[in-house]
Amino acid sequence: MENSKKILLCIEKLKNEYPDAKCSLIYSNPLEMLIATRLSAQCTDLRVNAVTPALFERFKSVYSFASADVHEVEEYICPCGLYRTKAKDIIEMCQKIIKDFDGQVPNTMDKLTSLPGVGRKTANLVLGDIYGKPAIVVDTHFIRVTRRLGFHNSKDPLFIEKTMKNIIPEDESNLFCHRIVFHGRAVCNAKAPKCNQCNLRNFCKYFSMFNSDMIQS
Q1: Catalytic sites, residue numbers
Q2: What is the pTM of this model?
Q3: CATH of the domain at 109
């Protein structure tokens, strides 16, 4: 099956399965999303959401973060892991937002990725969910699920982003990424995918390769 046809089937199947899928991080403004996404690196969204209410209550604006003591920020975010690097990045990104972008979280890829600690995954999440621009968020779930489906045979995030951008309709891209994450957590997990429960199995390369060991429902 051509990828252009397969992606439309995936979109519809995932819409039916996860109609309310959205970013799992809790935030109330662009800066909070940016910081929460930085904290989520090598950490679960659940843990980030447990940390950020107190963090955002203590530091209420880009200016308070920019002037924060790094050790105090570290104390708030310690449960998220890599807290020293993350605290340093958060303070420096806020300083740069003030210096270069008039205190506003920027809305382009180039500007976002110029911020300390911000890569394409974080930038795409902000662009898609905050600014409503077509974006492909390539996290570990997205890499794994789209690879198993047969859309690519790569683990390189930039290659995958460009490949999927060429076949996913722009108006579907943001929610498709969130639904893939939901699907990766609930069904297509890394160690023991629940292929018999998967509504994508009829056009999944991984399932077709190993279905002799599986019972179709």
Answers
A1: 121, 139
A2: 0.90
A3: 1.10.340.30
